[in-house]
Amino acid sequence: MTGTMSVRMRVVVASLVLVFASVAGGPARAQEPPPRIGPFVIDVHGTVPRFPSEDPQLAASRGMTLGELPGSGLGVQVGVHLYPLRWRVVTFGIGGELATGRARQTPAAGVAFVRPSEERFTSIAPQLSFNFGTGHGWSYISGGMGQSTWALVPEGQEGFPPDAERLKTINYGGGARWFMKDHLAFSLDVRFYAINPGMPHAGFPGSPRTTLLIIGAGVSVK
Fold this sequence. Notes:
This protein is mainly β. The chain is built from two helices and eight strands; from the N terminus they run αβαβββββββ. 13% of the residues lie in helices and 51% in strands.
């Protein structure tokens, strides 16, 4: 993805989050007074991680060609959040998130010099959130800092040390939850993971500094 496309993607995603946020922040059903946000929520999302597929430095960090990079994949995102404090229109949340995703690439029959490969990403981090709305539905922006592992494994290169390296990672994004029932909601999360570069190893350059986009949707329980 080029720099211009990346900027456009972020603008589009930010616009979608604002739309969902405005919907979630409105009254979901007639009730006076509406319940407060929380006191806790558990999110379980299926996700689509957008792994980079046109980054020469990433390919070089594993001795691969661009055609061997898998690209987008599938994953899971699980979060637990508590809401201990409200100030005016903002409810503050604290919690944590585990995100993991995987993509595979299998070359077409007859394609030479392109190995099958697998890409895996796992991140765990605490999060602080700012929430807007009521217990019937609310939007949020959130972020946190933790560690991640980013493995990129071409066939025949299992156990390469950079695939187990722990990388400092900052995550930030937002989303919304719509409670269809008292304790069950549909929820959406759009999140960026800013991953520190990896260390060079055995003559290969380190993996580049990367911002990974993960879009998730699923259910929330409170």
